[in-house]
Amino acid sequence: xxxxxxxxxxxxxxxxxxxxxxxxxxxxxxxxxxxxxxxxxxxxxxxxxxxxxxxxxxxxxxxxxxxxxxxxxxxxxxxxxxxxxxxxxxxxxxxxxxxxxxxxxxxxxxxxxxxxxxxxxxxxxxxxxxxxxxxxxxxxxxxxxxxxxxxxxxxxxxxxxxxxxxxxxxxxxxxxxxxxxxxxxxxxxxxxxxxxxxxxxxxxxxxxxxxxxxxxx
Length: 217
Known about the structure:
The chain is α/β, with parallel strands linked by helices. It is built from eight helices and ten strands.
């Protein structure tokens, strides 16, 4: 099966998920859906990557209204996602991906697919992350080529992926919006620092899959 077809099938299953996980909000009638699974530039040549964050941010009223009107389908989540392609989270992360020479497809995802519940400010509960990763992310990983790099977006996502995926190359970066102060230190005049590029390149060609954090600390 072509990767795009495989991701579409996983996306359809994701939208049908009815698990009532702790700490998150999922309300189809209100237009609050599991999301953040999207294959960008599916026909691009070269080594691709999985770009994995923690979980999606709180949906905005316009987004919820769109899904109430258009319908809670995976096809509609893809259409809406295209509207967000150049928001800072994606644009800045893509800047790192491109400068690492990962010119192939990008499979955007998260450890947990649902946004936090209205009263939860911190991370999703650990068990929720464990459950969602097992139910959804592991299938996304299985469909993607093993030589693809897994990019952990933010410290918590990177740490989880580094432990979870000893057989995959994992590179971590500071969060491009929430941790922007640290993220911008990866660059000089818009160019990824040479030392960081070398560290990432060594990890990407290592015989034994490596996990490398490109931020401070």
